[in-house]
Write a sequence for this structure.
């Protein structure tokens, strides 16, 4: 699962779906909405009119889907951002809903990639720094809540440099860690649907993920294979924000770097895994 940032024109993006910052009428408007309808052609508007006739437009924070007409994307997810006035806390919640509901709709259609513009930051005047934080945090929340999502890539497409810089400063950093595991631990990981590491046993107060594949391979080959006949190495992606609470421990050679996660904090670590745990190597 990747979260990408680019500066550009969303009508040129080649994802399964691009998101439109629509208005509740679904009948098109200015800004990115106008650009999408101009580039996509009449098919998009015809479908929007059909949805409007059926359900009477789209509420703020909700999303609807149409095909993408002449665009290179396959679908357009039309979501209605909040106007920045009145109850600001309510507006923040509604903007988060735009991102979450668009991703949920993409997921329900089994789409693999979604591109977002900076919803509400044009004529709806949502402060760009706050909007960037909401967009990024909501995407991360979605990924954490849907570990087996069909969505492999989320792209934030910033039209203007100001938005681009706000995103750049707030993009989440993800760290890949490795762990040698034996058959028993691998089976328990598999039982969780590749989502979690199993709780430690009473005599295992610390969980040791390592920072590089070579070190994990070495442990697997030198310890697991002689002891059990087979050794595995799994990889997983963790939010750098979570990991920054811990210091990296060097336990000898140049590549022997690992983290020491106390057993009672393992469940919190599991909740900060983005995507699933992947079996990457098997040694016999
Ligand atoms: P809203 O009404 O939700 O504020 P706007 O379309 O006015 O929607 O603005 C939303 C954001 O879309 C703004 O940051 C604007 O710069 C950006 N934008 C405008 N045209 C494009 C485009 N072709 N591709 C990507 N983003 C765009």
């Amino acid at each position: 699962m990747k979260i990408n940032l680019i500066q550009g024109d969303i009508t040129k993006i080649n994802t399964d779906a691009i998101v439109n910052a629509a208005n509740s009428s679904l009948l098109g408007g200015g800004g990115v909405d106008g650009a999408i309808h101009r580039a996509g052609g009449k098919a998009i508007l015809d479908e929007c009119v059909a949805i409007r006739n059926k359900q009477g437009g789209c509420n703020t924070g909700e999303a609807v889907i149409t095909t993408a007409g002449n665009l290179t994307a396959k679908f357009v997810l039309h979501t209605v951002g909040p106007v920045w006035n009145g109850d600001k806390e309510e507006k923040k919640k509604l903007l988060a809903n735009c991102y979450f509901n668009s991703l949920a709709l993409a997921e329900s259609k089994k789409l693999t990639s979604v591109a977002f513009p900076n919803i509400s930051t044009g004529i709806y005047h949502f402060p760009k720094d706050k909007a960037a934080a909401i967009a990024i945090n909501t995407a991360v929340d979605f990924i954490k809540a849907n570990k087996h999502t069909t969505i492999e890539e989320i792209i934030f497409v910033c039209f203007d440099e100001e938005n681009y810089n706000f995103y750049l400063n707030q993009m989440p950093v993800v760290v890949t860690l490795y762990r040698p595991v034996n058959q028993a631990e691998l089976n328990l990981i598999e039982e969780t649907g590749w989502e979690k590491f199993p709780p430690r046993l009473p005599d295992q107060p610390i969980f040791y993920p390592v920072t590089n594949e070579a070190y994990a391979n070495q442990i697997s080959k030198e310890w697991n294979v002689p002891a059990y006949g087979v050794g595995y190495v799994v990889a997983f992606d963790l939010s750098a924000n979570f990991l920054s609470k811990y210091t990296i421990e060097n336990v000898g050679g140049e590549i022997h770097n690992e983290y020491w996660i106390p057993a009672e904090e393992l469940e919190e670590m599991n909740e900060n895994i983005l995507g699933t745990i992947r079996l990457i190597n098997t040694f016999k």
